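Appendix B: complex inputs.
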Amino acid sequence: MPEKFDCIVVGAGPAGTACAYELAKAGVNVLLLERGEYPGSKNVMGGVLYRKMMEDIIPEFYKEAPLERPIVEQRFMMMDKESAVTFSYKGLEWGREPYNNFTVLRAKFDQWFAEKAVEQGALLVCETVALECIVENGRVVGVRTDRPDGDVYADVVVLADGVNSLLAKQLGFHREWRPDEVALATMEILKLDKGIIEDRFNLEPGQGCTIELFGDATKGILGTGFLYTNKDTLSIGVGTLLSGLIKHKIKPYELLEYVKNHPMIRPYIQGSEPIEYLAHLIPEGGYHSIPKVAGHGVLVVGDAAQLVNAIHREGSNMAMTSGRLAAETIIMAKEYNDFSESMLDHYRMKLMESFIGQDLKKYKDATHHFDAFPQYFERYIPMMNRAASQMFTVDGASKWEKQKKIWRDFGSTGEKLKLARDVIKAWRVMK
Amino acid sequence: MMKNQTIEEKQYLVRFNADTKSHLHVLDPNICLTKCPDKICTIFCPASVYKWEEIRMHVGYEGCHECGSCRIGCPYENIKWEYPRGGHGIVFRLG
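Resulting structure:
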């Protein structure tokens, strides 16, 4: 490999590949490093890829990319032990162009995306770990890899090295993440016949459905479960803050088994065969955890910069857009031949002006709030289930009597006031 | 009722290209022995890489998913955590 590039991108996930693609397309000489055997081999996602942000990079990608199913229905289940209150939106506009989102299997999708960057002229080198940034006179000038004679140089280095974000940490851009800034997700891919999937999820051939699971899916710990339809597999998983697992001393794979065996979930997956088990961290620190994202000769994108909206399970879209914005900034920096922090800081401004900065700001206190006040998941979701059961069970009691019973179930006057306050507080952190 | 799948059965579904040497190191074994009654890494590690064997922590790095939880979650910051050498470690085929 030549010794010096215009740009080195560390990590061929959605953020890094998006950046490398845009740079290569603009004629920038870019090296894309990936530590795995192939792009995607280290990457895990529940599986929802958003059309808009991908199309900002490759228009009509859905005509050739390896996608699983376009999602036409999104369900939200508030679960108790043997009941659930379900909200759903199904819209056939999501089933045709331009689509809203798709399920994907990352090992397949990431490989395809990286190949597209290579077609644009990026040099992809796999099986290579970036051990550290090479810093000279306070500027990042390259990376040290684990290959023999593995130092490579560039005008600018983009850190797209994922949630662990070791390189930005080494540069002092952030401290080690706390256990309440990351969620540990475990998931399984379950093989199941196409037709059975479509029958069970009420889908026309080729359409997809996502189900998010709250409450008893995580035994009341802050987190969510999910069940997504792929072509002939299902992705089922559960993620909770690492701090929650530590506090409650729960084994993540046992929690996954609990979800799989939950009476509200079991019928969906019955008869399926697990074919892969995966674990990964999700950065869920939100707005307050975003590290320094631009320095002299260096930018941080995607998970490495904590760009995940945990409330709306959006991450891959933020990764792609951050990669694209980093590329735009680098192209501008190249025109001025200025890779200083003040020039590259345009990336941070673009990021904060975009939906990424705006959405993360909107929910800046949400995760912390629900973590600090566990009653939402532990108490109010079961309460919601009991209220629905009471109201919809026809047993001769009048509806007024039923409303009284539900009201009594809300607890003492003090508890009712607390509930009212909690509803207002929840509104404040979500609005 | 489906039979609960054990972690060993789950791990059997995963492809690993294990390196010959570990990328995970307990820095001070004495801390696990004397200061850490919970040995919480043996609970939250999603691959059950960490196993307490009477007086020492056994680290089955070959089955590591490289998630990073142990580095972040160890209450004594007692785990040195690196990526396996390029091309080694876990190889996800699907998700």
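The domain at 10-91 of chain B is CATH 3.30.70.20 (Alpha-Beta Plaits).
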